[in-house]
């Protein structure tokens, strides 16, 4: 039995790699590729008559494989299926770090899942509140209700858009410039930031189109996403590269934090670093940069 | 007597100047008396050397029981020639007590196992031994221990007279009527004929076996008529589909790609990665894929590869055609892209096995090599590699050029998954040491990288580049934690194969496997 530490609600999640929970060859050591989170899928990747088998495979994986620092999230089946309650019991009993709610459309959906999770935590003697949640928005209704979804629970760490279903609803297809989902991505980002949770972009499914993938990742970063869902380990490297801070940003963040600690100890609230006015509002950003830098192997200091 | 890598070598093998392995470069500076063949004079003008059959060729060369026949392995798993020749010698001429000295043997040669069991073939000297032949030798059915040598060790042993070849058989995709051979232009093309070259120069007799007779003179020849006694034309020397595969494709397996990327990262972190560097890689998934990532680093730094050697396949030819590598020097071809390139693409050259890897000559290419990327069946915590025996102790592999390139190169990188099925690749002690740990520098697995503590300079390079690495013991423990620690193999006393280090000392022995019985 592998005990997993209590999940961190806000941690680095640049890359979330999807994999079929039913494929032992995939899930037995998915952590070796270095993604921040793995997303074990009980939903679309698993055939209807294989749901039980996948749950068994998932439970034993969670109980016997040491995923180390890699976060383990499970995508459960939609609330309109007969599977989601049993999915939740397996996730909680196995000790998954978080659950991704598929096809989430309202705050009520989140609360429904939360209630089932809490019941399962009590059933299996797991600390209540341990299991985190995230929501996948897959429909226009989900996007329009993004803010209430994002702020529906203390367990919510993030929200993601699911491009395949969403584009179908919108009668569009993937476009080179991202115009197909521009409004939805923007709305979801606004809601996530307003609710203070993380926001993730959808998968890029054409593995042969490297250029398209790279353009989308660059756009994700520019729009302010925290990370991206992936379908193949070979996509990890580029996302990490794009989401890594620059050397200049790291130096600046270090200076801001050092100056802030010195100045606040001396009772000063506003000061300048390299000619720029700095106050407490800059601190979370600087800390985030250094945490990111550490994860990317670019910072070894002790400020964060 | 225990050797440098801790293997117990029976004293009775240490005769006629044979020594145990003493560490790399032990023979450096010593002198070697070259052997010379006794060859027949063909003074009288001769229209043609074509004889009607292999049996006639054997008779022409004075074949008799007790002789040593040599073969080369460019036709790989498609080869028909070894089996044809041995059949003619044993079943038509009734010869026995024969020794096969081949550059390598494979699954294509399963029928030879019967001749071993019948006691007709009593000696095997080879780099590779697999399939049924590996099984019967491991079962102790060969009269004398098989001798396993690297691709560089073989020409050393031939030139030094440790192997005396009575008749060398050259499988030739094309030949003219007097025996000028090439590896291209026929119907069973193999490209380079590098492994046949030393054999032809040092054998008493040479028989060319071809399925495509071309006009005289077949030039430039890989094996020259001046060394050839007879030419035999047969229907087919091999199965082209198994001689050269369709173009070797770079793996899309994410695990292979991740390891390959880390190999390239390690290479780019060393001081040897500069304009004009030299490189050899294998054709296994992650080894071959290293080409792809290496190219990205070369582009980034604006540098080119000076030269590449080895068994060659498509991706390296691709780099040559793109102008990213200056010269490709080729001892064997693995796919049709390479076969169709040698002698055709400018700067794609052929070389002999001796020129490639012989540790006893004065200028083998391996000794100027910067990087080699190699696979392993097993690697132990002393960085000793096994590419010969399976986890059951049975012969099923080949050292090939592994020990030669590892010893010669400035940076030898082994790339292998940590586990294969239920077997730990990184282990406490390899079954057989085929490449000694003092020649191996870096290990890249899917679970992490380890550097040989003998190479503190490389450790520093990786640290400076921010490449995470762990002690090899950590990888071993991880492997055992995943698949468990296997019981030791049970052996009998009888030595079934002697593994020579490339310099001719004894690196290890393979003993007869004790049949496993369930309680």
Keywords:
heterodimer; A: 304 residues; alpha/beta; TIM Barrel; 2 domains; eight-stranded parallel beta barrel; two-stranded antiparallel ribbon; 10 strands; B: 519 residues; Glutaconate Coenzyme A-transferase; eight-stranded mixed beta sheet; 15 helices; 25% helix; 21% strand; globular
What's a quick, concise take on this entry?
Chain A has twelve helices and ten strands. Chain A has 304 residues and is α/β, with parallel strands linked by helices.
Q: Could you give the topology of this structure?
A:
The complex is a heterodimer of chains A (304) and B (519).
Chain A: E1 15-20, H1 24-27, E2 37-41, H2 51-64, E3 71-75, H3 84-94, E4 98-101, H4 107-123, E5 132-137, H5 140-144, H6 146-150, E6 156-161, H7 163-169, H8 182-195, E7 198-201, H9 210-223, E8 227-230, H10 236-243, H11 247-265, E9 271-273, E10 276-278, H12 283-295
Helix pairs in contact in A: 2-3, 3-4, 9-10, 11-12
Chain B: E1 50-51, H1 54-60, E2 68-71, H2 81-92, E3 98-102, H3 112-117, E4 121-126, H4 131-138, E5 146-148, H5 153-159, E6 167-172, E7 174-175, E8 181-182, H6 194-202, E9 205-210, E10 230-233, H7 240-243, H8 254-268, E11 277-281, H9 285-301, E12 305-312, H10 314-321, E13 325-333, H11 336-339, E14 348-350, H12 353-357, E15 371-374, E16 378-380, E17 385-386, H13 402-408, E18 411-415, E19 419-420, E20 423-424, E21 426-427, E22 442-445, E23 448-451, H14 456-464, H15 472-483, E24 491-500, E25 506-513
Parallel strand pairs in B: 1-10, 2-3, 2-6, 3-4, 4-5, 5-24, 6-9, 9-10, 11-12, 11-15, 12-13, 13-14, 15-18, 16-21, 18-22
Antiparallel strand pairs in B: 7-8, 16-17, 19-20, 22-23, 24-25
Helix pairs in contact in B: 8-9
């Amino acid at each position: 039995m592998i005990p997993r530490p209590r999940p961190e609600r806000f941690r680095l999640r640049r890359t979330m790699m999807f994999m079929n929970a039913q494929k032992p060859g995939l899930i037995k050591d998915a952590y070796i590729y270095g993604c921040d989170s793995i997303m074990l899928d009980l939903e679309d990747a698993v055939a209807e008559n294989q749901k039980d088998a996948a749950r068994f495979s998932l439970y034993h994986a969670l109980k016997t494989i040491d995923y180390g620092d890699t976060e383990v999230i499970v995508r459960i089946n939609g609330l309109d299926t007969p599977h989601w309650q049993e999915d939740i019991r397996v996730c909680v009993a196995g000790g998954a770090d978080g659950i991704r709610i598929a096809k989430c459309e309202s705050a009520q959906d989140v609360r429904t899942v939360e209630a089932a999770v809490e019941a399962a935590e009590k059933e299996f003697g797991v600390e209540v509140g341990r299991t985190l949640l995230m929501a996948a928005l897959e429909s226009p209704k989900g996007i329009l209700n993004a803010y209430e979804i994002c702020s529906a629970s203390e367990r919510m760490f993030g929200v993601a858009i699911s491009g395949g279903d969403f584009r179908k609803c919108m009668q569009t297809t993937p476009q080179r410039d991202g115009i197909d989902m521009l409004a939805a991505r923007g709305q979801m980002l606004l809601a996530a930031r307003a609710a203070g949770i993380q926001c993730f972009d959808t998968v890029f499914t054409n593995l042969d189109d490297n250029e398209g993938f790279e353009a989308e990742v660059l756009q994700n970063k520019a729009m302010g996403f925290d990370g991206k869902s992936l379908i193949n380990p070979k996509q990890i490297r580029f996302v990490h590269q794009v989401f890594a801070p620059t050397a200049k940003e790291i130096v600046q963040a270090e200076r801001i934090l050092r100056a802030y600690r010195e100045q606040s100890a001396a009772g000063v609230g506003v000061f300048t670093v390299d000619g720029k006015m700095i106050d407490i509002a800059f601190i979370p950003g600087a800390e985030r940069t250094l945490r990111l830098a550490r994860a990317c192997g670019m910072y070894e200091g002790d400020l964060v | 007597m225990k050797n440098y890598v801790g293997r117990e070598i029976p004293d009775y093998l240490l005769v006629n100047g044979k020594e145990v392995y003493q560490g790399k470069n032990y023979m450096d500076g010593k002198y070697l008396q070259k052997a010379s063949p006794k060859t027949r004079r063909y003074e009288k003008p001769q229209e043609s050397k074509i004889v009607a059959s292999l049996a006639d060729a054997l008779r022409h060369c004075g074949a008799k029981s007790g002789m040593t026949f040599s073969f080369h392995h460019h036709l790989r798993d498609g080869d028909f020639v070894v089996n044809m020749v041995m059949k003619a010698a044993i079943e038509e001429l009734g010869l026995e007590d024969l020794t096969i000295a081949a550059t390598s043997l494979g699954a294509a040669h399963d029928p030879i196992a019967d001749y071993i069991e019948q006691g007709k073939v009593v000696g095997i000297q080879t780099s590779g031994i697999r399939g049924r032949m590996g099984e019967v030798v491991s079962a102790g059915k060969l009269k004398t221990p098989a001798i396993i040598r690297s691709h560089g060790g073989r020409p050393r042993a031939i030139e030094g007279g440790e192997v005396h070849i009575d008749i060398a058989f050259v499988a030739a995709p094309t030949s003219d009527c007097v025996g000028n051979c090439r590896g291209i232009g026929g119907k069973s093309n193999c490209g380079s004929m590098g492994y046949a070259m030393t054999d032809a120069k040092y054998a008493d007799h040479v028989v060319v076996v071809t399925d495509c007779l071309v006009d005289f003179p077949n030039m430039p020849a890989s094996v020259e008529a001046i060394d050839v006694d007879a030419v035999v034309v047969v229907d087919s020397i091999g199965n082209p589909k198994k001689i050269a595969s369709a173009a070797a494709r770079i793996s899309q397996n994410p695990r292979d790609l991740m390891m390959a990327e880390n190999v390239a990262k390690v290479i780019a972190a060393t001081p040897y990665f500069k304009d004009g560097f030299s490189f050899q890689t294998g054709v296994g998934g992650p080894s071959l894929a290293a080409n792809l990532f290496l190219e990205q680093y070369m582009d980034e730094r604006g540098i080119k590869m000076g030269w590449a050697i080895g068994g060659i396949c498509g991706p390296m030819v691709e780099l040559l055609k793109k102008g990213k590598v200056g010269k490709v020097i080729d001892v064997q071809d693995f796919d049709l892209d390479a076969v169709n390139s040698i002698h055709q693409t400018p700067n794609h050259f052929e070389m002999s096995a001796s020129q490639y890897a012989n540790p006893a000559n004065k200028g083998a290419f391996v000794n100027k090599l910067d990087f080699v990327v190699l696979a392993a069946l097993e690697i132990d915590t002393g960085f000793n590699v096994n590419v010969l025996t399976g986890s059951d102790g049975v012969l099923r592999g080949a050292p090939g050029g592994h020990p030669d390139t590892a010893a010669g190169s400035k940076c030898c990188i082994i790339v292998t998954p940590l586990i294969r099925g239920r077997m730990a690749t990184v282990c406490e002690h390899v079954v057989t040491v085929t490449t000694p740990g003092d020649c191996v520098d870096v290990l890249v697995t899917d679970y992490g990288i380890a550097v040989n503590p003998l190479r503190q300079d490389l450790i520093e390079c990786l640290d400076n580049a921010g490449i995470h690495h762990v002690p090899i013991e950590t990888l071993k423990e991880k492997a055992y934690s995943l698949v468990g620690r296997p019981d030791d193999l049970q052996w009998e006393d009888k030595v079934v194969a002697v593994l020579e280090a490339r310099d001719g000392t004894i690196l290890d022995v393979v003993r007869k496997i004790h049949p496993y019985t369930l309680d």
